[in-house]
Design a protein that fits this description.
single chain; 254 residues; alpha/beta; Arc Repressor Mutant, subunit A; Rossmann fold; 2 domains; 7-stranded parallel β-sheet; 3-stranded antiparallel β-sheet; 24% strand
């Protein structure tokens, strides 16, 4: 079993049981104690779990944004480029906040005649750096400053989203699977993404392979409402990918 598949199985076990023992994982995955120890170390470095005596416990949150921005960067860059290449200007776009959508903003900033509506301060900064050469309109949604990423949030942000209609909502979830759809851990992030999806003609999900077949705490977009999923090629090796492919109209792997 490849390490990515093992990591996914361990994450699913932690979501179900909150705490797993080394022996429990060895039995479930049919691997050695040393392999489990190595997987625990790698997942702890990603911020997924915390090692304890005899096993590991679920941290219960996604890694902080500064940690996420250093994980699977090449995959996220490829996803961002693929999404930008499919944008047919002029369009009005919603973008939520996250490490993948920040990379997407850098790609979109090279295009022209876009209206971008976002709560992400990092994304807005990427567009600002190209403002002198590109004819894009950037609308930053107001609200309260999030305490876990550089973004606005809260009821006033939702109210502003509801004033707009967009062609596409470009969203990056914590997890996506066929049963629960796209989901996030933080309620405020899920609420923002849900509002954007509801006010857009199409919803595009940008998710690297680690998010395929996993779910987080709060669903914001059922799979039947997703027009396009863009991921990297390792996604088709993940448990749950086939079920997603049966539910979503179009999936692009890069």
């Amino acid at each position: 079993m490849w390490s990515e598949a093992r990591h996914q199985r361990i994450q699913l076990m932690l979501q179900r049981y909150e705490r797993v023992s080394t022996t429990q994982v060895m039995t479930a995955l049919g691997v050695s104690r040393e392999t489990v120890r190595r997987d625990f170390l790698e997942l702890e470095a990603m911020g997924v779990l915390k090692r304890v005596h005899g096993g590991a416990v679920h941290i219960g949150d996604e890694p902080p944004i500064d940690k996420r921005s250093t994980l699977r960067v090449s995959a996220k860059q490829a996803i961002a480029k693929a999404a930008a290449q499919r944008i047919d200007c002029p369009l009005t776009l919603f973008m939520d906040a996250g490490s993948t959508t920040t990379l997407l903003a850098r790609e979109l900033s090279l295009l022209s005649e876009l209206t971008i509506i976002t709560n992400s301060l990092d994304a807005a900064q990427s567009f600002r750096q190209q403002a002198a050469t590109q004819s894009n309109q950037i609308i930053i949604l107001g609200g309260e400053l999030s305490n876990h990423l550089a973004a606005t949030t809260g009821s006033s942000t939702i109210t502003q989203i509801q004033r707009f209609h967009a062609d596409i909502a470009l969203l990056s979830p914590v997890g996506i699977d066929a049963r629960y759809g796209a989901s996030s851990f933080h309620h405020d992030e899920a609420t923002i993404a849900r509002a954007m999806s509801e006010r857009a003609h199409q919803t595009w999900i940008l998710a690297d392979h680690s998010k395929i077949g996993t779910r987080s705490r709060e669903t914001y977009c059922p799979v039947q409402e997703i027009s396009l999923l863009i991921s990297n090629t390792s996604a088709n090796q993940r448990e749950g990918f086939k079920e997603l492919a049966d539910c979503i109209d179009e999936i692009v792997l890069v």
